[in-house]
Amino acid sequence: MDVTPLIPQGKQIIEAYGEGGFRISGQRVEGSVIVFPDKVVAWAPAAPAT
Asked: Residues 1-50: pLDDT tens digits?
């Protein structure tokens, strides 16, 4: 029995993270990002957490 979830075409999937970045739908992305269903946007926080 295959329990792999079905992922609609064109959706962004976070596959892995580490070493300062992510692998999102097969693409390596560095730094902070916001992942929407149809796109990935670079995001810089206003200030680092303390």
From this structure: 888 888 888 899 999 999 889 999 999 999 889 999 999 999 987 877 77
DSSP state of 31: S
Q: If DSSP codes are grouped into helix, strand and coil, which group holds residue 25?
A: coil
| DSSP at 47 | S
Q: What is the pTM of this model?
A: 0.70
Token pair of 25, please? 């739908």
Q: Under a CB-based contact definition with an 8 Å cutoff, are residues 21 and 33 in contact?
A: no
Domain borders along the chain are: 15-43
d(CA 29, CA 42): 9
Q: In angstroms, rounded to a whole number, what is the distance separating the alpha carbons of residues 18 and 41?
A: 18
